[in-house]
Amino acid sequence: MKDFCAQFCVEPGQSIDLSAWNPASTDGVSTKKTAKNEIVEYAERLRALQFLLYAENKRSLLIVLQGLDASGKDGTIRHVLGYMNPQGCRVQAFKQPTDIEKEHDFLWRAHKVTPAIGDVAIFNRSHYEDVLVTRVHGWVDKKVCRQRYQQINEFESLLAANNSIILKFFLHISPEEQLKRFKKRLKDPDRWWKISESDYSERQYWADYQQAYQDALQHCSSVHAPWFVIPSDHKWFRNLAISRIVVETLESLNMSFPEPKVDIAKIKQKYHKWFE
């Protein structure tokens, strides 16, 4: 079994050429059925680990999902991360900034929804939108982007210094796979609500988005907040890779349940009749 964390991680300062990363890769996993069985196993482990994270109450987990339209952000949340208890897990979507958000620095809307200690937050898109779509459409120039890379790194360093585990996933798909998914949506009336004209108009900027992602990945992957490039043409492999990385990262923390706050033996003795 390969180490998915190492396999798909962008090393700090690593030069990135996304054309060299195959979005259709399954990294030696033979079948969809095999992957699904593993995903179920990892889902159960993730459920237990989230409970442990919540109980230990020493750190938090921030998961960032980025990718072009139809890359599978919602699907990842539903099929991989949806196993977690919503009492300690929140999904935050980042759409166009509101008028109030525009009156603050670009990181303000992200900072106020980062996870509290013991909790998990999943960002569906994120603070990286402000070095991606804004750059592609020329709303900010390269100088501003460079400043924002530094500000993002400092922001994530602050979170990490306060015991937040940060995992960032770029869901890498091909333009052919994206178009296939768009066509599938058009054939399904239950998915028409997800369709917007920008889904198609933004495709003309594909190369620009690839370059913007390459630069963001290169400048903003760190030891404490790594980026992972996840091949996502095959949904089942995307789900497997992310499941494995999240689970293996949490297991590496060697978390433990806190000591009881009461005398368990005394409780058992005093109320033993209730448990006979």
Helix content: 40-55%
Note the total helix count: 12
Q: Name the beta content range.
A: 5-15%
Spatially, the strands of the biggest sheet line up as: 1-6-5-2-4-3
Task: Please indicate the count of domains.
Answer: 1
Task: Give the CATH level 1 class.
Answer: Alpha Beta
CATH topology: Rossmann fold
Spell the H/E element sequence.
HEHEHEHHEHHEHHHEHH
Within CATH, the superfamily carries the name P-loop containing nucleotide triphosphate hydrolases
Largest sheet: 6 strands, mixed
Based on CA atoms alone, the radius of gyration comes out at 21 Å
CATH architecture designation: 3-Layer(aba) Sandwich
Cα separation of the termini: 47 Å
Overall outline: globular
Low-confidence segments, ≥5 residues, pLDDT <50? none
Question: Which class best fits the helix and strand makeup?
Answer: alpha/beta
Counting DSSP E segments of at least 2 residues, the number of strands comes to 6
Mean pLDDT: 93
Short description:
The chain is of the alpha/beta class and 276 residues long.
What does this protein structure show overall?
- This protein has 276 residues and is an alpha/beta fold.
- The protein has one domain: 3-Layer(aba) Sandwich (Rossmann fold).
- It is built from twelve helices and six strands.
- The chain has helices spanning 4-8, 32-56, 73-79, 99-102, 108-111, 133-136, 142-161, 175-187, 197-201, 206-220, 235-251, 264-270, and strands at residues 9-10, 60-67, 89-93, 120-124, 164-172, 227-231.
- It has a six-stranded mixed β-sheet with strand order 1-6-5-2-4-3, sandwiched between helices.
- The longest helix has 25 residues, at 32-56.
- The radius of gyration is 21 Å and the shape is globular.
- It starts with a helix and ends in a 6-residue tail after the last helix.
- The model has no long low-confidence stretch (mean pLDDT 93).
